[in-house]
Amino acid sequence: MEKAYLYIVNIDALDTERVLSALSEERKAYVLRCTDIQTRQHRAAGELLCAYALRELGESVNLPFSWQKGEYGKPYLPNSRWRFNIAHSGSYVCCALTDCMEIGADVEKQEERDFAALAKRFCSENEYRRLMGFAQEKLKSHFYEFWARKEALSKRDGVGMHKDFRTVDVTKWHVCCFERDGYTYAVATDKAFELVVRDVHANCL
């Protein structure tokens, strides 16, 4: 079975200034355009986490990246066999990688929301009925699983939020989803795969 890798870093202790020094001037400007500190950390850490993962997987990588973007903005490295996708939420940034197929990833911090209203807006009728069938105390967990799966699937082909989420059928593709420390993670591909999860300390970036 093919393998996919998910690298995860907690950015609470991230030295943003140190990380910024490794980025290109263009990427540094992109990070600094955001006034929210945590979003800056998300943007800065994503590229370095991807570089760390690629090096650990045997790829020769130099920073700053010379990556390109697809039609909908999904980044890729034109001279690499590895496909990757970066996601972030709250205190975590993750990078999913595989060398044999397109891949999408998502991470969601589980927070209290109006889950019924969100499900009505973003889920198909069948999905909505299924979600509303869960007991109230289990609704949050199941909603974030649905959402993370949909997000990862839409990012797999680079479409992301350009796609109507009601049309994203989470049953038609291969998605690995799990919860940890109040967050939901999802990785999606178009083939069956084994997911290998690796944690990275922020100082390693």
Task: Walk me through what this model shows.
Strand 4 (83-89) and strand 5 form a beta hairpin. The protein is built from 6 helices and 9 strands; from the N terminus they run βαααβββββαααβββ. It has helices at 16-20, 25-32, 37-56, 115-122, 125-132, 136-156; strands at 2-10, 68-69, 75-76, 83-89, 92-98, 104-109, 174-180, 183-189, 193-200. The longest helix is centred in the last third of the chain and has 21 residues, at 136-156. By secondary structure, the protein is of the alpha+beta class. Helix 2 (25-32) packs antiparallel against helix 3 (37-56).
Which short descriptors sum up this protein?
205 residues; 9 strands; 4-stranded mixed sheet; alpha+beta; 34% helix; 6 helices; 27% strand; 3-stranded antiparallel sheet
What's a concise summary of this model?
This protein has 205 residues and is of the alpha+beta class. It has helices spanning 16-20, 25-32, 37-56, 115-122, 125-132, 136-156, and strands spanning 2-10, 68-69, 75-76, 83-89, 92-98, 104-109, 174-180, 183-189, 193-200.
Write the layout of secondary structure elements.
Elements: E1 2-10, H1 16-20, H2 25-32, H3 37-56, E2 68-69, E3 75-76, E4 83-89, E5 92-98, E6 104-109, H4 115-122, H5 125-132, H6 136-156, E7 174-180, E8 183-189, E9 193-200
Helix pairs in contact: 2-3
